[in-house]
Amino acid sequence: MSPSYTLAFSASELRRYTTMAVDAVRQELEAWRAAGMVPGARVADIGCGPGTIVVALARLVSPGGIVDGVERDPIAQAAAAQVTAEAGVTNARIHAGEAEASGLEPGAYDAVMMRLVLLHNGPRIPAIMAHVVTLLRPGGQLYLVDTDMLSRHVVPRDPDLDDLVERWWQVMRRAGCDLQIGPKLGQVILEAGLELVSFDAGFFVHQGEDLRTDLIPDLAVRESVIQAGLGTEADGRRWLEAGQRWRADPAPKFIFNPLYRAVGRRPVHRP
Asked: What is the pTM of this model?
């Protein structure tokens, strides 16, 4: 995983992750099952963040299954431990590790999930994929989810918020992020030596009441941009006012988040 999160981890980020997990379960549950995340399965969630997806997976593979979440950031690890404990799941474990060096047992997993991990690791993608493939048993499946940041849309638009987003993208590029990794997931699967089982894309569309959640990480984005030297405190105040103005506008509001999903299978004949 990247040396640090592009966004600072916080309580609002945890709420945002929780919202995304709810969306994922609602829209992807059958795809998870098709990829081998079923009762009794052993599953790894690489780059698990605060563990919101780990909880959903742990419930899905019960009874008899185990979920191992791997996360490099100590704050996110602590959050994941707390989230899983509070959820009451007893078949989930959180491990400290890197996406390209998880420390997990090779060849032991029926399924591995990675969500929005490759986005943050452009130059490391080959090493990450080479490692993750080794975790799968023959016939096991890798479930990748990622995005195309440049295709994310917010309606109505605001020129000041557009300015903030453009500078945020600069921060991400400096950190080695591949902002358009989503459309490349099929190629990534095949280059790793896996069989491509499926590859699709769609939008999570949030509107109305959904926008009361922290789906727009504007505070974390502002801080990240200013810390990177790409904005001033005056810019920060301008962006803050823009966010407040946007939320107060009575016009209908929509956020369109593009997500790409690719599933690859480790060939049965591979040792």
From this structure: 0.89
Would you say 133 and 63 are in contact if contact means Cβ atoms under 8 Å apart?
no
Q: Nearest 5 degrees, angle CA 67-CA 266-CA 187?
A: 105
How far is Cα 190 from Cα 174, in angstroms, rounded to an integer? 27
Give the integer Cα–Cα distance in Å for 73 and 120: 13
CB 60 within 8 A of CB 89: no
pLDDT digits (tens, 9 = 90+) for 221-268: 888 899 999 999 999 999 999 988 888 889 998 888 899 999 999 999
| Residue indicated by tokens 């030596």 | 193
DSSP state of 268: T
Task: Compute the distance between CA of residue 40 and CA of residue 172 in angstroms, rounded to an integer.
Answer: 38
The conformation of residue 154, written as its DSSP 8-state character, comes to: E
Question: Residue 68: what residue type?
Answer: D
- Asked if 207 and 252 touch (Cβ cutoff 8 Å), the reply is yes
Spatial CB neighbours of 16, under 8 Å, sequence gap ≥ 6:
213, 214, 215, 217
Backbone angles phi, psi at 203, to 5 degrees: -120, 135
Domain coordinates in residue numbering, the chain? 11-148+176-205+256-265
Angle between helical axes of 52-61 and 74-87 (0-180°, round to 10): 40
| Across 71-99, average pLDDT | 94
Alpha-helical regions (H) of 62-124? 74-87
Give the C-alpha separation, 140 to 37, whole Å. Answer: 10
Topology of domain 11-148+176-205+256-265 in CATH is Rossmann fold (3.40.50)
Whole-number Å distance between alpha carbons of 243 and 179? 23
